[in-house]
Amino acid sequence: MSYLFPNYARDTIDLIDGAGSYVYDQNQTRYLDFTSGIGVSNLGHKNPKVLQALAEQTNKIWHSSNLYANKLQEQVAQKLTMGKDYATFFCNSGTEANEAAIKLARKATGRQKILTFKQSFHGRTYGALSATGQPALQAGFYPIVAGFDYLPYNQLVPLKEKLTDDVAAVMLEVIQGEGGIIPAEKKWLQAVEKLCKENNSLLIIDEIQTGVGRTGTFFAFEAYQVEPDIITTAKALANGIPVGAMLGKVELAKAFGPGSHGTTFGGNNLAMRVAETVITEINQPTFLSAVVAKGNFLKQELSQLIDQSDKVCAVRGAGLMIGVELDSPETLYTVIQGLKNQQLLALKAGKKVLRLLPPLTISQQELEQGLKIIRQVIQ
Ligand SMILES: Cc1ncc(COP(=O)(O)O)c(C=O)c1O
Fold this sequence. Notes:
Blueprint: E1 15-19, E2 22-25, E3 30-33, H1 36-39, H2 48-58, H3 71-81, E4 86-91, H4 94-109, E5 113-117, H5 126-131, H6 135-138, E6 148-151, H7 157-162, E7 167-172, E8 175-176, E9 182-183, H8 186-198, E10 202-206, E11 230-233, E12 244-249, H9 269-282, H10 285-303, H11 305-308, E13 312-318, E14 321-326, H12 329-341, E15 344-345, E16 347-349, E17 353-356, H13 364-378
Parallel strand pairs: 3-15, 5-6, 5-7, 7-10, 10-11
Antiparallel strand pairs: 1-2, 2-3, 4-12, 8-9, 11-12, 13-14, 14-17, 16-17
Helix pairs in contact: 2-9, 3-9, 10-13
Bound molecules: pyridoxal-5'-phosphate (PLP).
Residues 93-95, 98, 121-123, 173, 177-178, 206, 208-209, 234 line the site of pyridoxal-5'-phosphate (PLP).
């Protein structure tokens, strides 16, 4: 028997080690990692710079509580805001970052309604779950938090109809990750930003999966020339050390005064020291342009499968966040198992999308090796 809740459909392999783009299971079988732990290990496993940062901080203070000044938090926040006027709140996960965003949006605007999108995913705590546009994930947990409405993604008319003067915020992913790797259309996202401004509603962009270089820009929204009022990020921010962050325009900061919101572990020194290294490594033009080049290569090569295999319907995504839509959930299951048998780990998204999230540091040779396996298994 297992001593764990059965809330995850776990595979039997137990990943006990990793190096670069590879992970090793309990039998020392080596797998090419096209998951990065669901978009977390963006700098690969046992990255030397990350290891060094962690080791240095391990020998200093790990945790000092948020009762005291924290220079490391200030440094990470400054790097995250990239010269723009945002204030940052640190927490420990994506769902917590979204909780903070929802609370800030309501308090700062004095409005209650939040509009989100169908097949979105924002997390599992009550606020974030209520924002998630997937009834299946909410089933059994009612009553959820009131005030959320779910609109069709990439459509403007339903949004215009619902964007009334009691809407605090519109919340969205630039590429819906769990929902099936569905990118926002540029014109749509720019129109959403404009409509929000006209209505004095805040635009919250959830960059928890798309952020930290995953799509080829540090935040995915940068490729859309929009400027969100609130940004949430987590997952890859400390390459596996738990951390999350919520950035809000400075004019919103007064709504989060002393006592308004908080967390014990959020922004602890270990996570901050690693996050500082991760941002420094990833937020460089050469690093990000390499992600774009690798992503374009992978996407172009995979797109050929649309003509070559009747199982492949579409290839979508940006940078190294790529979805291969297959013809059925059964094909997806068979493909993921087939890849595992060929020692490549990959993910699912939505009902029938093969989701590929390799470490951003993956080499061209590893990428080609992965492609070869994917081609073989799908064909
Ligand atoms: C877009 C998005 N938002 C929020 C979350 C929740 O993050 P966490 O699992 O760290 O709570 C996820 C996790 O997959 C996500 O992909």
